Amino acid sequence: RKEVEQDPGPFNVPEGATVAFNCTYSNSASQSFFWYRQDCRKEPKLLMSVYSSGNEDGRFTAQLNRASQYISLLIRDSKLSDSATYLCVVNPEGAAGNKLTFGGGTRVLVKP
Amino acid sequence: DAGVIQSPRHEVTEMGQEVTLRCKPISGHDYLFWYRQTMMRGLELLIYFNNNVPIDDSGMPEDRFSAKMPNASFSTLKIQPSEPRDSAVYFCASTDQPNYGYTFGSGTRLTVV
After folding, report:
1. Are the CB atoms for B1 and B27 separated by under 8 Å?
2. For residue A96, is pLDDT > 70?
3. Which residue has the higher pLDDT, A93 or B33?
4. Model confidence at B75: pLDDT above 70
5. CB contact under 8 A, B98 and A87
6. Which residue numbers of B have CB closer than 8 Å to A's CBs?
7. How far is Cα B74 from Cα B84, in angstroms, rounded to an integer?
8. Does position A45 have pLDDT exceeding 70, yes or no?
9. Contact between A86 and A102 (Cβ < 8 Å)
10. Is B52 helix (H, G, I), strand (E, B) or coil?
11. What residues pair up with B31 in beta bridges, in sequence order?
12. Which of A11, B57, B80, B97 has a CA between 20 and 30 Å from the CA of residue B65?
């Protein structure tokens, strides 16, 4: 089983709609969670950290479910500029670890 | 801040040649990571340094790959000899707080023919 698994998509989303997708992780000791965004032929960029209580940043909401070992990302009122690949990122080694493990990414295409 | 700077942006080389990729981390960041990205395998961690010391190189594919960090502002990833299967985008990333995420450079797109 991969350490971090994501549905590769693509998720085809009408502009203005809401889209949500999950990512599962295998190591229950994982403590740090992130969503990164990667545009085509660009570097990954940090979108948001994911906290235990869930967190929101504008139109983006991230949730963590430790019991089921998954994190989610919800995008409201999708914009054309939200089209990208969203990478789920986990620190699998807990507090003592410094390495981040990246999922394969979920591709989102927002269409007019 | 100029961010993480990588060079070259693109590299095309013939099989068997030596390739050197370069990275300048963000000033003050004492962690530096080298990742490789391919369509098949996604982003894979190759090696990371803390305070210029290699901490974990378990992701380095084989002896053909080597990485150095002679000082806090410079790191290299070398492939010798290069093979077509090394073709990928190589990213360098740095941070001062791993649990707060990394900042990536723009990457080097390597093609070995």
Report:
1. yes
2. no
3. B33
4. yes
5. no
6. 31, 33, 35, 42-43, 45, 48, 50, 55-56, 91, 98-107
7. 26
8. yes
9. no
10. coil
11. B50, B95
12. B97
A103's tokens: 């999922």
The residues, ordered by sequence, that sit 6+ positions from B25 with a Cβ below 8 Å of its Cβ are B4, B32, B72, B73, B75, B92, B94
The whole-angstrom separation of Cα A17 and Cα A22 is: 17
Model pLDDT, residue B14: 97
Radius of gyration for chain A, computed over Cα atoms and rounded to the nearest angstrom: 13
CA dihedral for B68, B3, B36, A21, sign (positive or negative) = positive
Residue A89 at interface with chain B, using a CB cutoff of 8 Å = yes
Closest chain A residue to B41, measured at CA: A104
Strand partners, A91: A32
* Interface test mutation site (partner A, options B5, B34, B37, B43, max chain A beta carbons within 10 A): B43
Residue B59 identity (one-letter amino acid): G
